[in-house]
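Researcher: Please predict.
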Amino acid sequence: MSSPAVRRERALLAMGLPALLLLGALFAWPVLRLLSMAVEDGTLHQIERVVLDDLYIAVLFDSLKIAGLVTVICLVVAYPLAFWLTRASRLGLALGMFALLLPFWTSVLVRTYAWMVLLGRSGVINRLLRDWGLIDYPLPLLHNLGGVLIGMVHVLLPYMVLPIYAALLRIDPDLPRAAEGLGAPRSAIFRRVILPLSLPGVAAGCALVFVLSLGFFITPALLGGGRVIMIAMLIEQQVRELLDWPFAAALSVVLLVVTLAIYAAINRLTKGARLAS
């Protein structure tokens, strides 16, 4: 007769089996199919086309740079906001969460078109600045890297705020009080107590925002105006215009490998920082 621990493990496995099967059907099988398409001729020719062509490598590095910039900007904006939410009143927390989650109620496409209305040469921002006499000519806020960063940060900011907020919320409030009672200044309390304990949330937020940024298509395609090219746009071009599915699969495989490598590096660096602190 099996022990209670074994029966508990079997029950947990039975409960999780439908989710595992669903994950395998919706994730594992498409990834395997993608890998097979990239090497369907029995060689690595398609992948070699990606890694040996300077054009595709440049687009990949541009995508990594944009994803990195978006991650850094989101972190700089999100950490103070998450810190404030943990110390806000009930009304402040409700209003802050409402404002933070409000963009989720509309699609990414609608939000991107809204930014096009705001950032265009005849858009709301340029009109206001000209009416106030601050500029004589419209500012180039659209169809460039700046416009893409603004749109992507707006979409991805909640994905950075929520993990950091959850990590800050889990910190025992007695720890900062104890440090303050021992005479530590607020800057030292934040640097030596709050920041190290919130690093898991920072790592989760950075990894989530970075990975999502790498696969962005709609926002850079519309706000970039064809001047800012990301690798997801190349994949879409290969599928929709050129019908070159094997090469699109090779691009996707390279992007997947790079994403997994960077995700592992983020986890390792964050773990090392936590141990050092």
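Model: The chain has a mean pLDDT of 85.
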